[in-house]
Amino acid sequence: MIRASRLSGFVGLTLLTGALQAPAHAESGTTLQPYQIVRSLQVVQDRIAIGDVAIMPMQHKLLEIMDGRLRKGSSQDFADQRNLRAMLVYAMSGGNPATISMLLSRLDLNGVDREIGKGLLHYLNGQAPEARVALASVDPMTLSPDLGAFVALVKGSVSAGDDQQGALKLLDQARLLGPGTLVEEGALRRSVALAATVGDADRFALASTQYAGRYLRSPYAPQFADAFVAGVVALHASLDLATVGAITAMMNPEQERIIYLRIARRAGIDGLTELSAFASAKAEDHGPSTETEDPRALLYSSLAAVPSGTSDEINAKLAKIDRRRLSQSDQELLDAVSDVAAKLTATPPALSPEASTQTEPEVVSADQEQPIAEANAAPVAPAKQNPALAPQAAPAVGSATAPAADDSANIVLETRRKLDEIDKLLGDVQ
User: Fold this and answer.
1) Which residues contact 166 (CB under 8 A, 6 or more apart)?
2) Cβ contact 195:231 at 8 Å
3) Distance of CA 418 to the CA centre of its chain
4) Of 35, 189, 194, 250, which is the most exposed, with the fewest CB atoms less than 10 Å away?
5) Separation CA 147–CA 85 (nearest Å)
6) For residue 264, what pLDDT is reported?
7) Whole-angstrom Cα distance, residue 352 to residue 344?
8) 102, part of any domain
9) pTM for this predicted structure
10) Are 262 and 229 in contact (CB under 8 A)?
């Protein structure tokens, strides 16, 4: 239904193209009715959604033309419901808040039109709670599809902070009313992020699959990538890695590699060893060649290997990393991982001669043994929160095992301090 109505927008788009190419006659655009200009605007936006970035300057110009046309419009123009709807759609398409405020003050709107107008003005001014209240009684499904799709998208956006499940339903309505449009692209992007927030792995996978299959060329796809990476990490316990692989398989090799690098990095810092190792391996598979291994993939796989890998495995990966090819923040991460690896593989000092002659060593308590057992464990709470890692009393003279236990405890304390630092590193770019 939306596609059929927008075909007529090509007529206005053709006329407006002449105005865009001939500035001296730009005013000819004002002979069109607002609803004709908005249809042209929507045609342009739908092409942007599927990756026609070259047409974006035309979107900006159409918004300017529409703004001028609305400011010069009379109350009689808006007696035509098509023009009134066009004004509301323009507001939700990146319109000028000042123009909308001026029009709403001049027009005597009633009923649902008044509520939509109030809600949109709050939305344009960044007042989400007020917009949510104003639009509460508006049912997008009762409106014309072009207007209802936008209203559902706006309602879903302003409701996301308080009612995630309700917001997801509204975003589904936006997609139903505006298939194949920039509205659907935006609704899918928001659905990916919201599904991760509510812990719905199935909905997250479905929305991600639909987005990847339709809108990866959109100029807004980087926002999808952010939501996808965060969602994979947040839902790692309930998300099948094969599903992740099926979604990324729809991307080109470079997009896929970057996605896996980002997942590996986040998962490594969060201590998600299996996910980090999986993503690091995938990133390495999509690298240019073994001769030019991506230093980031090596770094993140090294980070994943710290809790359970062998010293040879970790050091071999670290040795191949060219730090000059890393960003400053990843160089700091490399230093931290290298320091942790060195601490984990350090050799305890030799026993003193007195200790080596002891025939009946003192029995070591469970509290003293725990740091040794945990020396190679995955990072957990800081040592200050673990009684087993609290400073111990001085060992008995002549104890053969106490010095080794103390040394191991020191290694664990230092290692966990470094792992805590890794957790905090790069927080500003998470």
Assistant:
1) 159
2) yes
3) 27
4) 250
5) 7
6) 87
7) 22
8) yes
9) 0.70
10) yes
Q: How far is Cα of residue 62 from the mean position of the Cα atoms in its chain?
A: 30
Angle at 291 between CA 307 and CA 300, to 5 degrees: 20
Nearest Cα to 192, choosing from 228, 158, 167, 238? 228
Is residue 1 within 8 Å of residue 146, measured between CB atoms? Answer: no
Angle, in degrees to the nearest 10, between helices 221-234 and 182-197: 20
Q: How many domains does the chain have?
A: 2
Task: Give the domain extent around 73.
Answer: 31-108
Condensed to tens digits (0 to 9), the pLDDT of residues 47-95 reads 999 999 899 999 999 999 999 999 998 888 998 999 999 999 999 998 9
Residue whose token pair is 């609803």: 35
**What distance in Å separates the CA atoms of residue 223 and residue 190, rounded to the nearest whole number?**
9
Place of tokens 């209802």: 148
> Is residue 55, in this structure, part of any structural domain at all?
yes
Residue 4 lies in a domain: no
Q: Could you give the CA distance from residue 75 to residue 34 in angstroms, rounded to a whole number?
A: 13
| pLDDT classification of 237: cutoffs 50, 70, 90 | very high
Tokens of 204: 């997250």
Least Cα distance to 89 among 17, 130, 129, 140 occurs for 140
- The more confidently predicted of residues 384 and 244 is 244
Cα–Cα distance between 97 and 124 in angstroms, integer?
A: 6
For the chain, the C-alpha Rg in angstroms (whole number) is 30
C-alpha dihedral sign at 103, 108, 112, 113: negative
Which amino acid, one-letter code, is at 425? L
Q: What is the DSSP letter of 144?
A: -
Domain endpoint, select from 108, 136, 154: 108
* Residue pLDDT, tens place only, 337-368: 677 666 655 555 554 455 444 444 443 333 43
CA–CA separation, 225 and 258 (whole Å): 9
Which sign does the torsion angle of CA 314, 319, 320, 324 carry? Answer: positive
pLDDT at residue 257 in the model? 87
Q: Is residue 167 included in any domain, yes or no?
A: no
Which of 345, 379, 408 represents a domain boundary (last residue)? 345
Q: Tokens for 69?
A: 């046309």
Of 266, 281, 286, 168, the residue nearest 225 (C-alpha): 266
Q: What is the DSSP string of 94-147?
A: T--HHHHHHHHHHS---HHHHHHHHHHHHHHTT-HHHHHHHTTT--GGGS-HHH
196: amino acid identity, one letter: A
